[in-house]
Amino acid sequence: MPARCSAIRRSEGLCYPKHAPFDPSARYPEMNGALGEEENPVYEQFRSCLIDLEMDKAHLGTADWNPFSDFIEPDNTVVIKPNFVLNTARPEIQNCCTTHPSLIRAVIDYAWLALKGRGRIIVGDACASEANFDEIVERTGTRDMIGRLRERGVAVELRDFRAVKVLSENGIWTGEQADAETEAGKIVNLGASSLFCAERFRHAKLHGAGYDIAATNRCHHDEVQEYRVSRTILEADVVISMPKVKTHRKAGFTGCLKNLVGINVDKNYLPHFTMGPANSGGDEMPAVRPVNAAMLACYNFLREHVIAHTWRIIGGPAAGLLRALSGSGRKQDSPDTAAEPQEGAAAEANDRDMAGWLHSKLSGQQVAAGAWAGNETICCMILDLNRIFLCCGRDGSLMQRTDRKVFYVADAIEVGMGNGPTSPIPLPLGAVGAGYNGLALDTQFLNLFGIDEKSIPLYDKAGGLDYMHLGEDGVRVYNGERWQRERDRFGSTLVPPDNWEYRSL
């Protein structure tokens, strides 16, 4: 491993190239492929990060330079795991909430160089259950890029990791989609090593990403702490995680740690919050008035014992009824059926989350579904998945450290801030980060924004876990130099989500 474990490069005004397959626009000694007709500063930025990390330093500047040879060998299976959270018809939103294919392309090139033509590369993710994977890879140009690289002889493929997909209307799930091409995943039980074995969760009622509350709680009780993890991830020789840097309403911040939610193939296995307000033992929302607590208790009983078992039947009619009661506009389906985007008040009415609207009426506040800084449940889920990623073998058994090699490449060229990941404010930042330790890289990004990472519960908790420091052997760097000075910070402010407040350094 090189002396430095993470590096970030930033260039003012840097933009994504627009046309697949996102070929480099400059000739590099180690590469002899096609050159693109448009400028591709992303490729150059990423390459500079690898230089900053001193990867294969002995051969730098020569045709033999092979930076990923530090962790990739010929005949390996390399999985590239981007952040494909959702699909949208608005490119400015897509670019600040999903990993851009121009950066994925650069990673593919250096992985293929290290494989020396022997091995394979898989690009895949388990995006949101209601997202349309095909729309994401079509609209971003990822499918076109992969197809053209395959024509050139690169052994690379796209894969949707999800085992369960759903349809939704206005934030209410209305049905399931079956897809024979998705993988079943492997059940991994962390047992007593899970953070959900804490006394705090002994009698908690956990809620997943969907309505099947019973399924989520069957997977998480006592020393049964199960996740359904992608076999593609577990069986890989190397995994390169490629998060999109952005804010997140439940977790506070999405980076390397949060990106690993996408290694779990069934969202019912993922506790997102503990049901109920803070004054009733939950972390779904802050404390509420006694009258609202009583109404929520009745609603939670209904969610657990009725909606959880009948949502496939009542979902559509319920969405229509709530639209009528709230005075909302037209039906808004899953993002995969998105029409031309509307603007202003019409868009706000038509895109309204009906489940969130009902919750606000019952609770007397705007916080719902764990979207606030007091959500401890989602932190434990994310850190459990990081433990699986770093410490579980190919068969899912827990070890001190897996022999799977991991590396991180973060896309912060355009950042999503505010109410991310689904309603972000775009921030052009022009930064790319890379490194061997996800916690160190995320912390470096937060500190460069001037944010104390300990003000975000996920990172406050992560810092005290030994396994989160695997691979953290070096010093933090910024533009190739030691990060020490106050002026070595981004000149941009990261706007937090509603119900969050970042503490400044």
Describe this structure as you would to a colleague.
This protein has helices at residues 41-52, 91-94, 101-115, 133-140, 142-151, 213-219, 231-234, 256-259, 290-326, 344-350, 354-363, 377-391, 438-448, 457-462, and strands at residues 4-10, 77-82, 120-125, 156-160, 165-169, 172-177, 186-189, 206-207, 220-221, 224-229, 238-242, 244-248, 252-254, 273-274, 405-419, 423-435, 475-478, 481-482. With 505 residues, the protein is an alpha/beta fold. The protein has 2 domains: 4-184 and 226-264 and 397-482; 278-363, no CATH class. Helix 1 packs across helix 3 (101-115) and helix 9 packs antiparallel against helix 11 (354-363). The longest helix is centred in the middle third of the chain and has 37 residues, at 290-326. It is globular. Residues 334-352 and 474-486 have low confidence and may be disordered.
Average predicted local confidence, pLDDT: 86
Distance between the termini: 30 Å
Class from secondary-structure proportions: alpha/beta
Shape, per Cα inertia axes: globular
Overall number of domains: 2
Major sheet details: 11 strands, mixed
Share of helical residues: 25-40%
Q: Name the poorly predicted regions.
A: 334-352, 474-486
* Count of individual helical segments: 14
Proportion of β residues? 15-25%
**Radius of gyration over C-alpha positions, nearest whole angstrom:** 22 Å
In total, how many beta strands? 18
